[in-house]
Design brief:
alpha+beta; 3-stranded antiparallel sheet; about 15% helix; Immunoglobulin-like; 8 strands; about 180 residues; single chain
Length: about 180
């Protein structure tokens, strides 16, 4: 029985040694994972993105300059002394839109909106003959409730620019 036990221990030791060799060979055949690179080190796997030489440069959104007030001057802008964001119901007011750079012949759409963004009126005009400003008359507000409103201005297909304003009825103030 002792011989059988010794023989069994010997066989197990031999099998164990063979198993260690096979694991070692498998580990040597499998490449180790690459160490993580620091965020500042460039990756050789992914080249940096470069703009195609024939692709047009990205278009920067143009900000539209708008002025809201009681009257415009001879240039079509709203003088600072006549600028306002609060108007009495039924009183006339104007919106002046300055032409964006290179915006000659640009179409401008103005939407007058209530506090729920419901359109109360829309106007469209086009810059022409080198004009610096387009002037839009405010809609008739005599039937509008007191409260907040806004005007949304869009030049061409660009993003809209909005200005908040308020209407007050019969001496009410929104301040």
């Amino acid at each position: 029985m002792v011989k059988a036990t010794v023989w069994l221990v010997g066989v197990l030791a031999l099998l164990s040694a063979c198993g260690d060799r096979q694991e070692k060979k498998a580990a040597e055949a499998t490449p180790a994972p690459a160490p993580p690179q620091s965020p500042s080190a460039p990756s050789s796997a992914t080249p940096p993105r470069q703009r195609q030489p024939d692709a047009p440069p990205p278009i920067a959104p143009q900000r539209v300059s708008v002025e809201l007030g009681y009257e415009v001057d001879e240039l079509g802008s709203v003088p600072a002394a006549l600028s306002s964001r609060e108007f009495a119901a039924g009183s006339p007011f104007v919106l002046a839109v300055r032409a964006p750079e290179g915006g000659t012949d640009a179409e401008v759409t103005v939407r007058w909106l209530d506090e729920r963004d419901t359109a109360l009126g829309t106007q469209t005009l086009r810059f022409a003959n080198g004009r610096e400003f387009l002037d839009f008359s405010g809609p008739d507000t005599s039937s509008w409730r007191s409260g907040p409103y806004k005007v949304e201005v869009r030049v061409g297909a660009g993003a809209p620019t909005s200005i908040a304003f308020s209407i007050a009825r019969g001496g009410e103030s929104q301040s």
